[in-house]
Specification:
Radius of gyration: 22 Å
Number of helices: 4
Distance between the termini: 68 Å
InterPro entries: Cytochrome_P460, Cytochrome_P460_sp
Strand order of the largest sheet: 3-4-5-6-7
CATH superfamily: Cytochrome P460
Keywords: Signal
Bound molecules: heme C
Shape: globular
Protein name: Cytochrome P460 family protein
Largest sheet: 5 strands, antiparallel
């Protein structure tokens, strides 16, 4: 027997659909807002950042720093995708930015391509966040965190912010853009306020 679907049933379905869809959309927009979580003054270790936007890899190898670089050795740096969009549009870091620096050891110094510094194991994780609500009194509203253990063999689950003198002071003195060392991140340099051009390959010029 054929089952009749009344227009009333369809209206009800559309209505439920709208509620579900509307709810999902608002959850997504809340989640897209910030990619970090601070509980009782401690930043919870962020996850998923290797799927954010990669901006560059400074390297301070131990063998060029008396055997013990402050942040050994490669630093793979990522910014959250919403803050990247904002950077492309405005050339500024939004309130709510998080930048991750994942430390990777020098694994090998020779490859078939030549002598060099090649990435080995992961050995640490640092982060900085810009938030007017969490850091109302910090310079530029940035705070700095380390999840690296002293032996560089594991990561902590949470981290307390360092005092401004320990981290921020050096960033304030030498970083090119709002406490961030954009001079060492070619992706951020090329992307600053550049809109679509920030995404690469749109010009025959190398920039
Ligand atoms: C003596 C100067 C100096 C001090 C002190 C310092 N940094 Fe940095 N930091 C740098 C430089 C230079 C870079 C970029 C190049 C690099 O990674 O080597 C950087 C980059 C970073 C980045 C990537 C985002 C950015 O702003 O460029 C994070 C995260 C970071 N540092 C965390 C920390 C933390 C946490 C501390 C305190 C424990 C700290 N830094 C102390 C010089 C410093």
């Amino acid at each position: 027997m054929e089952r009749k679907i009344s227009s009333k049933t369809i209206r009800r379905c559309l209505c439920i659909g709208a509620i579900l869809f509307g709810g999902a959309a608002s959850i997504t927009s809340v989640m897209a807002e910030e990619y970090f979580n601070v509980v009782d003054g401690e930043l919870q270790r962020p996850t998923g950042y290797r799927e954010w936007v990669y901006v560059g890899t400074p390297v301070t190898p131990n063998d060029m720093n008396n055997g013990k670089a402050a942040f050994p050795e490669h630093h793979n740096v990522y910014i959250d995708p919403t803050s990247w969009s904002h950077w492309k549009k405005t050339g500024e870091f939004r309130d709510g930015t998080i930048i991750i620096k994942e430390l990777v050891a020098v694994g090998s110094k020779a490859a078939v391509s030549g002598a060099g510094y090649f990435q080995g194991d992961f050995i640490g994780l640092e982060a900085t966040i810009k938030s007017t609500s969490i850091n109302p009194n910090e310079p530029g509203n940035w705070s700095y965190y380390s999840f690296s253990t002293p032996d560089h063999k594991s990561l902590t689950d949470t981290a307390k912010a360092f005092p401004a003198a320990a981290c921020n002071a050096c960033h304030a003195a030498a970083a090119a853009d709002d406490f961030v060392f954009t001079q060492y991140y070619p992706v951020l340099r090329a992307g600053k306020g550049a809109g679509t051009l920030a995404t690469g390959g749109h010009s025959s010029m190398l920039k």
